[in-house]
TrEMBL record:
Listed InterPro entries: ATPase_NBD (IPR043129), ROK (IPR000600), ROK_cs (IPR049874), UDP-GlcNAc_Epase (IPR020004), UDP_GlcNAc_Epimerase_2_dom (IPR003331)
Composition bias, Basic and acidic residues: 12-27
GO molecular function per UniProt: hydrolase activity, hydrolyzing O-glycosyl compounds; N-acylmannosamine kinase activity; UDP-N-acetylglucosamine 2-epimerase activity
Region Disordered, residue ranges: 1-27
Domain (UDP-N-acetylglucosamine 2-epimerase): residue spans on this chain: 83-425
GN (gene name): LOC118413467
Protein name as annotated: Bifunctional UDP-N-acetylglucosamine 2-epimerase/N-acetylmannosamine kinase-like isoform X1
Organism: Branchiostoma floridae
PANTHER family: BIFUNCTIONAL UDP-N-ACETYLGLUCOSAMINE 2-EPIMERASE_N-ACETYLMANNOSAMINE KINASE, ROK (REPRESSOR, ORF, KINASE) FAMILY
Catalytic-site annotation from UniProt: D570
PROSITE patterns according to UniProt: ROK
Length: 776
């Protein structure tokens, strides 16, 4: 076991070679800051640092900085580092940081010294504690120390590897300092926090050397530039495929025990899973129990520096594995020896990426515990035990895998990765004079996709407004015509009050919509008066709505609510409501007639609403049914509205009441209650002859108006809506039979709407049907 562990000679308290700094020394701090400021100014001014040295990159060596943080990344980076060192066009810079410098992890910086690399900086960047917080703090510490080093080294390219938190600080720092980054092993998927870190580094990096074709395709789908992606294979495979695995005697006796034969031992390497520390500790516990029970020669490697590793070390000690005759422990094994162990072990158990990647090259049986490597591509040598929650399951897996031999798999490399990477770096050299700005290759955006997602998250809905003489109502209405929320206020008498109230109610409704998970597509307004729907203007209104002529409704509401706005008159809206949600569904030619306080309607011909040349079509209340007759709100007289509207009935009711001829037993008028059309209808139903006459006259007038419509338009349906409709429908049918042309009368269907809110629903339907168009 490698227990030696001092930091590099004379390196304690230093950030990098030759620049000992006392952080409390003010002068040195000032100097440091001005150095930083100078560097920053150079970068901000857009003048590349190397130009200030008068050196064109074509006339000098390319400075390639390799930063290594632990034994695992060094095993991938070392082959590239050797090649860079041997290349006369390259100047290799080496930064050593992270767990390399920590005794508990084997002080692996020594490997780098043994390989005779000149190290340009040692950075102590690990905050001890082995928990999530200390990992985050370590990233922060590295971010504090790295800029200094990069300012000094001025690399043209920084090579980072993998998915460790150290690598994230390296990539973050380099990206912020406009240093080009080559990321090795991006695009892979493992299934832990490592994924987030790996993909983040991908986004920060300018170049990618990946290992598998799937990884390459993932990089492309992450919007990376195809020209900057190299499918290299894994650099360790170069060494892996050229090593002599038969040369095992010394290695096996050194690490596992004297006289141990190939295949007669197990290697265990289990790292904590940082997103599920508790679960992974339990799994480690169970694995040790299972291995103790299986009881063959077993080599247990100490875990990496992830959060939770300290607890694992404690578990090893608790079982006294240090003194167990069949167990040996190791903090660090040099990579070339590790490969030989891997090639000759009877089984590798744990969750190390070495099991997935390196072991495949030898067909070594692997048991992968838990989810840490679950997403990675693997050969058939790997047996996944996802729920390793009992000792029995793990033991069963060991029995299945131990001493088997699988076909070798070469998913991760063909032995020529380094050669490819070097060719790639030479190509990058040509880019150095180009702007560093990284471009992301976004795929064309698909509208349908985003709409589908919206639809899953939120109900596509409309805000509908019904602005009548009496009430101002706002509702949230779903694509299916469901009224999800409704508000009602009395319609204020002046324009300004009306607009204020309307905007206030709409703002409130949009907030309510978020609460109800509704995506508001737009606002549909149904209003009394003549409307130009193309411009969203109320052109003119009768006395029912004062101060409601030449009003632009669309612009102020659209700009306050940031939503598209449609406006139409209430009769037209009612017709649209019937068409989408009511009895007009499926009918191409029909007329909606609203009989409420006033009379209005809408005409649908050939599936389209008829607006007319001057937006005056379907003013059905003003169909003349008499040469003289009562005065109408429109200024004329004898209009159907002046006979059959709520206002007309009220007028007649008042006349009867004034003559004391309205009230009959059963019809009551409470103290101070206003006489309305309702009372005349009640009185008629209870046999008041004078009241019956009023209602009959109203039916006659409405029937005549409908005859006019039949003879003008010949619709298939007439849909009566409004609160008076049920009282008129039979009378209207009777008039038609009596007075309309038989061919028109026989085919027509007169029906009463079953929609509670045709105008509101119609206003919503404009939004829901036409949300992609400005006009309809
Ligand atoms: Zn009129």
């Amino acid at each position: 076991m490698n227990t030696a562990g001092v930091a590099p000679d004379g390196q304690h308290g230093q950030d990098h070679l030759g620049q000992k700094r006392d952080p409390h020394d003010l002068a040195s701090r000032r100097q440091y800051r001005s150095l930083q400021a100078r560097a920053r100014n150079k970068m901000l001014s857009g003048v590349p640092d190397m130009d200030t040295e008068g050196l064109n990159v074509k006339n000098r060596k390319m400075r390639v900085c390799v930063a290594t943080c632990n034994r695992a990344d060094y095993s991938k980076l070392a082959p590239v580092m050797f090649a860079l060192r041997d290349d006369p066009d390259m100047e290799l810079q080496v930064v050593v940081m992270g767990s390399h410098l920590i005794d508990d992890y084997g002080s692996t910086y020594r490997m780098i010294q043994q390989d005779e690399f000149e190290v340009d900086g040692y950075l102590h960047t690990i905050v001890r504690g082995e928990d999530e917080a200390s990992m985050a703090e370590s990233v922060g510490l590295a971010l504090v120390k790295l800029p200094d080093v990069l300012v000094r080294l001025k690399p043209d390219l920084l090579i980072v590897h993998g998915d460790r938190f150290d690598a994230l600080s390296l990539a973050t720092c380099a990206a912020l300092m406009n240093v080009r980054i080559l990321h090795i092993e991006g695009g892979e998927v493992s299934g832990t926090i490592d994924d987030s870190i790996r993909h983040s580094i991908t986004k920060l990096s300018h170049y990618h050397a990946c290992c598998t074709d799937r990884a390459r395709r993932r990089l492309l789908s992450m919007c990376e530039d195809n020209d900057h992606i190299l499918l290299a294979g894994c650099p360790t495979y170069d060494k892996l495929l050229s090593c002599n695995a038969k040369n095992y005697d010394n290695v096996l006796s050194k690490w596992v025990g004297e006289g141990v034969k190939p295949k007669d031992f197990i290697v265990a390497l289990q790292h904590p899973v940082t997103t599920d520390i508790k679960g992974s500790l339990k799994m480690f516990d169970l694995m040790l129990d299972a291995l103790l029970e299986f009881n063959v020669k077993t080599l247990v490697l100490f875990p990496n520096i992830d959060a939770g590793s300290k607890e694992m070390t404690r578990m090893i000690r608790l079982r006294g594995l240090e003194h167990h005759p069949n167990f040996s422990l190791a903090k660090h094994i040099p990579y070339d020896q590790f490969i030989i162990l891997l090639a000759n072990t009877g089984c590798l158990i744990g969750n190390s990426s070495a099991g997935i990647r390196e072991a495949g090259a030898f067909g070594t049986p692997v048991i992968n515990l838990g989810n840490r490597q679950i997403g990675r591509e693997a050969g058939e040598n790997v047996l996944h035990v996802r729920d390793a929650d009992t000792k029995g399951k793990i033991l069963h897996a060991v029995n299945l895998q131990y001493q088997k031999q699988f076909p070798c798999s070469y998913i991760y490399g063909d032995g020529h990765a380094v050669q490819r990477i070097m060719k790639f770096i030479h190509k990058i050299r040509n880019d150095l004079e180009k702007p560093i700005q990284k471009s992301f290759i976004f795929p064309p955006m698909k509208d349908t996709v985003s709409q589908d997602i919206d639809h899953i998250l939120e109900t596509q809905s409309a805000l509908a407004v019904d602005l009548g003489g009496t009430n101002l109502r706002v509702a949230i209405i779903s694509q299916q015509g469901e009224v999800l929320h409704k508000m009602s206020e009395l319609t204020p008498p002046t324009y300004e009050q009306r607009m204020d109230l309307l905007v206030r109610m709409l703002v409130e409704a949009t907030s309510k919509a978020v609460e109800l998970s509704c995506r508001i597509l737009g606002i549909g307004i149904s209003t009394g008066g003549r409307v130009n729907p193309h411009e969203g203007m109320v052109l003119h209104s009768t006395k029912i709505l004062e101060e409601w002529s030449s009003i632009d409704l669309r612009t102020p509401i659209s700009s306050k609510l940031h939503l598209p706005v449609w406006v139409d008159n209430d009769g037209n809206c009612a017709a649209l409501g019937e068409k989408k949600f009511g009895k007009g569904k499926g009918s191409e030619d029909f007329i909606t007639l609203i009989v409420g306080t006033g009379i209005g309607g809408g005409i649908v011909l050939n599936n389209e609403l008829v607006h007319g040349a001057n937006f005056c079509a379907a003013e059905l209340g003003h169909i003349s049914v008499s040469m003289d007759g009562p005065d109408c709100m429109c200024g004329s007289s004898g209009c159907v509205e002046s006979y059959a509207s709520g206002i007309a009935l009220q007028r007649e009711a008042k006349k009867l009441h004034d003559a004391d001829e309205l009230l009959v037993p059963g019809v009551h008028l409470r103290e101070g209650e206003e006489v309305t059309g309702k009372h005349v209808i009640q009185a008629a139903q209870l046999g008041n002859k004078k009241a019956e006459k009023v209602v009959e006259t109203a039916c006659e007038a409405l029937g005549l108006a409908v005859c006019t419509l039949l003879h003008t338009v010949n619709p298939s349906h007439i849909i009566l809506c409004g609160h008076l409709a049920p009282h008129y429908v039979d009378g209207v049918r009777e008039v038609i039979q009596r007075r309309a042309l038989p061919s028109a009368a026989n085919s027509i269907q007169i029906m009463v709407s079953d929609l509670e809110e045709p105008a509101l629903l119609g206003a919503a339907s404009i939004v829901l049907e036409y949300a992609t168009r400005r006009i309809y």
